[in-house]
Amino acid sequence: MTDSIRFLMCAPDHYDVDYVINPWMEGNVHKSSRDRAVEQWEKLYHVLKENAVVDLVPPEKGWPDMVFTANAGLLLGNTFVLSRFYHKERQGEEPYFKAWFESKGFTVHELPKDLPFEGAGDALLDREGRWLWAGYGFRSELDSHPLLAKWLNIEVLSLRLVDERFYHLDTCFCPLTGGYLLYYPAAFDSYSNRLIEMRVAPEKRIAIEEADAANFACNAVNIDKIVVMNKVSEALKTRITQAGFQVIETPMSEFLKAGGACKCLTLRVTEPVQEDRSANVMVESRTIRMEGHLLDAGLISRALDLIIENGGSFQVLNFNLGEQRQSTSSADVKVSAPSHDVMEEIMGMLIDLGAVPPPQEICDAILEPVVQDGVGPDDFYVSTIYPTEVRVNGQWVKAQNQRMDGAVAITETADGPVAKCKLLRDLKVGEKVVVDVVGIRTIRKTESREQRNSQEFSFMSGSVSSERRVELVVEQVAWELRQIRDRGGKVVVTAGPVVIHTGGGEHLAHLIREGYVQALLGGNAIAVHDMEQSNMGTSLGVDMKRGIAVRGGHRHHLKIINAVRRYGSIAKAVEAGLVTNGVMYECVKHNIPFSLAGSIRDDGPLPDTQMDLVKAQEEYTELLRGADMVLMLSSMLHSIGVGNMTPAGVKMVCVDINPAVVTKLSDRGSIESIGVVTDVGLFLSLLVNQLDKLTSRHHVAQS
Ligand code: ARG
Q1: Ligand 1 test: best mutation among 24, 67, 68, 216, most atoms within 8 Å of CB?
Q2: What's the rounded Cα separation, in Å, for the pair 291 and 304?
Q3: Cβ(90) to ligand 1 under 6 A?
Q4: What confidence tens digit (pLDDT) does each residue in 631-668 have?
Q5: How do residues 106-151 score in pLDDT, each as one tens digit?
Q6: Using a 6 Å cutoff on CB, does residue 121 contact ligand 1?
Q7: 124: which residues sit within 8 A by CB, 6+ positions away?
Q8: pTM score, two decimals?
């Protein structure tokens, strides 16, 4: 049986490390010994000859890597797909390999120019012939995989390589007889690992450690029950032996300097065709169009990066660069992904960046009915903070109540379809929900550089300010607050208890009194501490004037809770004169609506605290509707909640002493958020000061 197996090799007459096209070659240029290379090659040649037939292709001068015949191409039965080398250093090998396979009567397929694929180095047949494992990420392009499936009529499973040391699939992956697989999992992304685990049963997987991987243990030649490999660890040898194989070690040090070993030096030329196979390929591709300040705003590089980072690959089909600074650019990008799931994930992110299908590919969104109240279809499109439109009956319909992490529900009305962002729990039978990622677009502002710079107080690209910049930010925020108040706009404040502890209470009260705040969101604690301070001069028992704990002070906050409970609500406590100043007092006096969301650690709670969290979320959403600005003051919990409900376009100012909180909140990828790392009491006092200055100047100018 073994004599029917044939391999192709190429003698190392011209072998050397002449250039660097992979990490192993670095530092090894002209460092390999010719004699030792010849000796090692011959050893391998003889081992193989004892178990199979070895054909030879004549070596060509000037093409030192031609010894690595695995990269000649990929064959199955009588069909041969010629490699298209990624690096020009190896492209000259192509005609020699082509001639050899033609002379042996193979049908030779050639890939389009600019579509790299490096043969059996990057594509390995399952040894039972059931499918083809194909690698991409470094040398071969994902888009070559559908062609392999077509020409070889076989199912292709695409695996993404992520460690540049393992740049070819055969450096970290070796299917063995009987469905076994020798491989190095860390060389692949998580999606590929999942795919491998789905196809290869746990008892058949021989996952190896980095040390063996770095000795090219996976670069092994398998002939039935024999595995020929470079020297590896005893432990690994034992495992392979226990799986029923005989391990033959043969030294490969000289070829390792070029990034190759046993398997690379061979190409199996007998690969019998299995009958019941199909040209199934999971690779999907779609074209998207991006328009705007693609370069200035860094949009195009973000888009291309996210495609790669998420396991896809791309081809830029057209790129029309805007000529003037203010003119926009457009690009058509073909996106390929190893499966539908990955494609959907990538498309979702591209849509967030404003990508749309090219005009000829625009189609209606796919809708699925809600069949159970409060539950969406599996594949529902997850909404973002950006204004979103969905295409229904050939018309783009803008979604209402834009927010992130919702579903887009469509209802038919007499005036046509209506689209709304809804939380899953609010979905109702009878509605339809947008699934998949077609027929959806988000509207991103295309501000040119000039526009951005001309807005004196623009909230520039989500930056976190250091202490030195605090005053500058305060000036911006004060200006915005003034503008919003003067035009009858809406500012919503979310505040944590730290506002009171840091002495910011009186300043926040001042803002409310002066009409700068239209709604207040917080928890039980801020209201308790605020009223404790107003009533007893302490915050959690600490004297706010002297900064020291008051005897018996630890009971103060429970006392105030108890007292307010007696009156039945904060408003009644204010009316009765229990609370005579402070944040809650001003809210009541000026009819500023507030919502206090409860939590597991609340004392009391106050009668006003909403302990039903679904209701609390609804109250928050209601109070946030139509906001122009949200001031987030030292409350990670409530601020994150608010961030989730707020669409892009609403200015968000996040103040916290903890930079991590600020970064988390201001990093929404929208340009309107700004973070300030500072003491919130200090911030509020500066802000009030600045507003007073602005106001008095105003009066002077008028008089
Ligand atoms: N120096 C060669 C290259 O970088 C090594 C090829 C190794 N071949 C392989 N099938 N892994 O292309």
Answers
A1: 68
A2: 14
A3: yes
A4: 999 999 999 899 989 998 899 999 999 988 888 877 66
A5: 999 999 998 999 999 999 999 988 899 999 999 999 999 989 988 9
A6: yes
A7: 132, 133, 134, 169, 170, 173, 174, 175
A8: 0.69
